[in-house]
Specification:
With 662 residues, this protein is of the alpha+beta class. Among the domains are: 165 residues, no CATH class; 102 residues, no CATH class; 99 residues. It is 64% helix and 11% strand. The chain is built from 23 helices and nine strands. A five-stranded antiparallel β-sheet has the order 2-3-4-5-6, with no helix packed on it. The chain has a four-stranded antiparallel β-sheet with strand order 1-9-8-7. α14 runs antiparallel to α15, α18 runs antiparallel to α20 and α20 packs antiparallel against α21.
Length: 662
């Protein structure tokens, strides 16, 4: 009964999504207030039915109901409860249902919290959001139904892919989807505005909170995925430029550019066309990522095995929404009135530079990701575009972004004084040079590029501090006045500074991990040792262990530094019995912001075990910095100006506007 409940909940959600697509937009075109008011109700009720379907699937997994094909293929009765729940979205069908759930919830949030939106814009936004739901609900019901039955039901399931049986799976996909799918709202706002032919500074104010929320979720989701791959796959790396990793990074670049472009549009009524295009591109790149993961064109630990029908269906969705929105943009964009003029050296100019570099980085990643696929499709030749290309091209584009970051907030709108800003940043630059000098002395020189990278990271962090100090007038006004100014600064100002500082923290982690990490590979018998990063690892014992659905051999290492015990670290080789699939469970021990990382292989014929160990200085700053960036986004989102959005037009002005629209 539960599978049938979930299935028919999706059918009803599809019917409501169709109505949500048609009625509000029809009402907006005919200026029918009653039809426009149906949008919020349909969005909320539709989200309720999708939530019911998702809850039904979770229940089937928790109960190990092997009368359902999806549960049979991806679960096991002996699997721990947490992994039964997270296994709900550890497969194609369940993850697509989670995708649609997030989409429906965002639509419901617009319906509930968008009371300050103009009726026509809100109706069009919900209509566009409903059309996306229609496409993906059709996709689920026709090609990826998670509620299909199998008769007679088997006694046991096939278990979930072992590498997905991890706490990271409980966090990474939902966060990533909240970012991916969250950009559907900015896409809906862009298409709705193009339909209506009206885009102004108020539009930017309405879009920014949704873009900021999606960006913050995507930032944490990417960081969590990076950390999951780092510790779960046992290879010791935190980013491999895997095509599916790239698919999450591209919308992040576009979303970051959108946030900055929307600021210019809100403050100066400029960059309208560019902001709308970025809103379209951010979600279009998210759709592209969905296609890469689920079409079968890629082979990756991140992808799902799919049949060609699914790939063709998703490709059709891409053509419909990306092609349709870009066609509408090409038709409407020339009619949009341009905003204020500004000098190249200004805050607007700095944000435009930021936008150009970010979109160029997204384009470079897109080309590097799709070029091998296109080449193979054309002539069958298989090539690989790997880290050397991405590190060189993306690094060359992002380093100027980081250097320019402290300058932008200090430049004046319309026309800025670059020399004056440079003078105000002189102490930040001096601090950066000092940091580089201290590191050079402490490491007896060290790589020159690494020292420059750490100096740049310090400049970014100190530049964020300088921005706050300048706004408070610290050193220019009495301390009491500076404190009062500091307290009066908007939260969005602190949030932007925190996000910029987070970039500097990430950069420190990247530079230190890539420049000073150490690696050792050896076969070690019990009692044997290896030295690494100033520590001594000694293999204390090998322990056979049994888990709920796996067997493993755990290697326990004693850690000593200067003869003093620093505890133990355990790494293991597991065999999941249902799938007869081995995995490596890395052992990680954190010291400050640095980590010892130990990965073991098979037992050696003469006794002992193969060991690959790493010392990774300050590696945790990579993920901590991403969290700081996301917290900056959340802090900005808590600013009342963003939560309230643009004010409603006065009643006295509504009649002329409606008449003009007619």
């Amino acid at each position: 009964m539960i599978p049938e409940t979930g299935h028919y909940a999706l059918v009803l959600a599809l019917v409501l999504a169709i109505l949500q697509t048609v009625l509000p937009i029809w009402g907006a075109r005919s200026n029918d207030a009653a039809l426009m008011r149906t949008g919020p109700m349909l969005a909320v009720v539709g989200a309720g039915f999708v939530s019911l379907a998702f809850a039904a699937l979770v229940t089937l997994y928790v109960q190990s109901d092997f009368s359902v094909v999806n549960v049979v293929e991806n679960s096991h009765s002996m699997k721990p409860l947490l992994f039964k729940i997270t296994g709900t979205w550890g497969n194609h069908e369940g993850s697509m249902l989670l995708w649609v759930l997030v989409l429906a919830l965002f639509g419901a949030f617009v319906a509930i919290f968008g009371s300050n939106l103009p009726a026509r814009l809100k109706a069009n936004v919900l209509g566009v959001q409903g059309s996306i739901a229609v496409a993906f609900l059709f996709f689920i019901l026709l090609t990826s139904n998670p509620f299909l039955r199998v008769l007679p039901p088997p006694a046991e399931g096939n278990d979930l892919n072992p590498v997905l049986q991890d706490i990271g799976l409980a966090i990474h996909p939902p966060l990533l989807y909240l970012g991916y799918v969250g950009f559907s709202i900015t896409f809906a706002f862009a298409v709705a505005a193009l339909i209506d032919g009206r885009i102004d500074a108020a539009w930017a104010r309405w879009v920014r909170p949704w873009a900021l929320a999606a960006w913050a979720f995507l930032t944490v989701g990417i960081a969590m995925g990076s950390y999951w791959a780092y510790y779960e796959l046992g290879w010791g790396g935190w980013w491999f430029w895997d095509p599916v990793e790239n698919a999450s990074l591209m919308p992040w670049f576009a979303g970051t550019a959108l946030l900055h472009s929307a600021v210019v549009m809100e403050k100066r009524d400029a960059l309208k066309v560019w902001s709308v295009l970025l809103a379209i591109l951010a979600f279009s790149l998210s759709l592209l990522g969905t296609f890469l993961v689920r079409s079968g064109v890629l082979t990756s630990v991140h992808t799902f095995a799919t049949d060609p029908t699914r790939g063709v269906f998703i490709l059709a969705i891409l053509v419909l929404f990306i092609g349709g929105s870009l066609s509408l943009f090409a038709w409407r964009a020339p009619l949009l009135k341009q905003g204020g003029i500004f000098a190249p050296v200004s805050r607007e100019g700095a944000l435009v530079l930021n936008n150009l570099l970010l979109t160029a980085a997204a384009a470079a990643v897109l080309i590097g990701t799709l070029y091998p696929l296109v080449l193979e499709a054309l002539d069958g030749e298989k090539i690989t575009v790997g880290p050397p290309y991405f590190n060189l091209v993306v690094g060359a584009l992002m380093l100027p972004v980081a250097f320019a970051m402290p300058f932008g907030p200090l430049l004046a709108w319309k026309r800025g004084d670059l020399y004056g800003v440079a003078q105000r940043l002189m102490w930040a630059f001096g601090g950066a040079v000092l940091v580089a000098a201290i590191v050079a002395f402490a490491t007896t020189g060290g790589p020159v590029l690494a020292l420059a990278g750490l100096g740049l990271a310090a400049f970014v962090i100190l530049g964020a501090v300088a921005d706050i100090c300048e706004r408070a007038g610290l050193g220019r006004v009495p301390a009491a006045s500076a404190y009062a100014r500091l307290r009066g600064l908007p939260r969005a100002t602190f949030g932007a500074a925190l996000a910029h500082a987070g970039v500097g923290v990430v950069l420190i982690g990247i530079v230190c991990e890539t420049s000073w990490s150490e690696e050792r590979i050896a076969g070690i018998k019990q009692g044997g040792s290896m030295a690494l990063g100033g520590y001594e690892l000694t293999l204390a014992r090998l322990e056979p262990r049994t888990g709920p659905n796996f067997r493993e051999v755990a290697a326990v290492f004693d850690i000593r530094r200067g003869g003093v015990s620093e505890g133990t670290i355990t790494s293991s080789k597991r065999l999941f019995t249902a799938r007869n699939m081995p995995t490596t469970e890395a052992g990680i021990r954190t010291f400050g912001f640095s980590q010892l990382y130990v990965s073991v292989g098979d037992e050696l014929p003469g006794g002992g075990i193969g060991v690959r160990a790493y010392w990774k200085p300050f590696v945790t700053l990579i993920w901590l910095g991403a969290v700081v960036m996301a917290l900056g986004g959340v802090l900005s989102l808590s600013d009342r100006r963003l939560r309230v959005g643009a004010p409603k037009p006065a009643k006295a002005r509504r009649a002329p506007q409606v008449a003009a629209a007619e």
